[in-house]
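Per reviewer request, we include the raw input and output of the structure prediction for the construct analysed in the revised manuscript.
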Amino acid sequence: MAGNGEDKERRRLLARRPGDATWTGRPFLTIDWNSTDMWDLGGVLSDIISDGLNEFRNTARETHPAGMTDDEWDSVLGQMIDGFQANRERRAGSVLDDESRRRLDRALDLFKRHFLDLGW
């Protein structure tokens, strides 16, 4: 990590104006990347995904995939958050031990399986 503190800068997620959001594939958010983000892009993405899943879990309480109950879906979201959080802790200086690695692997499997379920 850089010694100048740049790696500790918080990336800003910027919502675009509502009129800019269309179905043409343009993004709803933009990210101001700092120069050290590429040193550990997986870690940066873990931060973004963990925060996004947590927000989704707290706001999308009335939705769950077909064939799952609210409680089952909440458990899946919790496991995904937990695994990406394990990688976030690694970025903060902890070691990704075997148990943390299993949590991350489980989160990645669930994220892949339920990627298209992450919406209203």
